[in-house]
Every structure is written in C-alpha cells, then in structure tokens.
C-alpha cells in the first residue's frame, strides 16, 4: 500500500513538472507572438532596407515559425530543468552534481553561442552572399532577398549550432572509453560520419553540407589535439 501511494505521489509530481514545462512553453509562445514584429528585427541583418514576400500568407506563417522555434527552444530547457528537479531526490550526490554541472554548462554554452557567435556568423554570411547581388555588373539586374529563404537558412544554422553541444558531449564520452590510437586510426570514418550527420540535418545541397560538416571535423581534430596535450601533460607530471 505504501509503495502504491509513493508511486501515485511521484506520478502526480511528474505530472505537475510536465504541466509547468507546458505552461511555460505556451507562455513563451504567446509572449513572442505578441512582440513578433520586434522579435523578427533581432534576426535581420544590419543595413537591410526590405525583404520580398511572395505569398499572401507567408508573413503569418513566418511569424508562427519564429515564435514556435523560439518558444520550443526555451521550452526544452525548461523541461530538462523540471526533469532534473524531479529526479534530484533519487540521485546520488555525484550523479546530482554531474547532472547539475552539465545543465549549467549547457546554459552557459548556448548563452555565449547565441549572444556572441550567432550574430557574427549571420553577419559574415550575409555580407558574403549579399555582395554578389550588389556587384553583379554584367547586365542591369537587381536581386532582392526573400524573407522565407532567409529564415529557412537561419533555421538550418540554428539546428547546426544546437547540435554542437551534444556532439561535444558524445566526443568526450567516446574519449573516456577509447584510446587515442583508435581515434587516429579511424579518422577517415569520423570524417564520413561528420558529412553523414550534415546530410541528415541540412538541405540536399553541397554548400550546406560543407558548412555543417567542416565544423564537426574541426571539433573532432580539436578534441584529438587537446587529448594529446593532456596525455603529454600527465606524462610530464609522472616524470616529475
């Protein structure tokens, strides 16, 4: 009987935690939709005078898409926090500290990523691709950006940046259970896997896959180099 009451209590608490996450996501969606026009200006490049809209309902669905992505991104963070608070009493002290440090690291990582790195990447890509429209001097043509195309590319970039932290976590886990020689021996397989992941999360064009696959390969090489330096550092400590 006590076990049944305890199970009912935990199920009720889990239900409340999930309800908090759902209400928080709905509240974020309603808030972002209320300030949708101000929100969309945060994603626009500087110096842009106008966008072209080709469909009558394109603006409406564009607003819905932005608000959905924004609210669900924060909703995932709220859900993970509520799950941690639900599981915290049943975890060991080491497990609780590890999970808390992982959540805190993810929060700081994504905050720095979207506050500092994301605007720089958007600015570089915009200046790179808009220069072709401005310097097209062969004949008198004018190229104007479409809002839907611009936001779809931002969505792909956001997806790639979102998967960067899980990729680092997976690389660290693989590092714990493998040795450096295995990483060096199967480096080619890692490159193929990077482009396979890029093909899975990007549109079917070579440019998008290269833009996603190359950073994954850079993460792999940087992790391998840091691992080598760490092993050399431990050897020097043992010699001393």
TrEMBL record:
Localization per Swiss-Prot or TrEMBL: Membrane
GO molecular function: proton motive force dependent protein transmembrane transporter activity
Residues that span the membrane, as ranges: 20-43, 63-87, 99-126, 160-177, 184-201
Membrane topology of this protein: Multi-pass membrane protein
One Pfam family linked to the record: TatC
Record-level GO cellular component terms: TAT protein transport complex
Primary localization class, coarse: membrane
Organism expressing this protein natively: Saccharina subsessilis
GO biological process: intracellular protein transmembrane transport; protein transport by the Tat complex
PANTHER family, sorted: SEC-INDEPENDENT PROTEIN TRANSLOCASE PROTEIN TATC, SEC-INDEPENDENT PROTEIN TRANSLOCASE PROTEIN TATC, CHLOROPLASTIC-RELATED
Keyword field contains Transmembrane helix: yes
Protein name from the UniProt record: SecY-independent transporter protein
Entry keyword set: Membrane, Mitochondrion, Transmembrane, Transmembrane helix
Family: Belongs to the TatC family.
Superkingdom: Eukaryota
InterPro entries for this protein: TatC
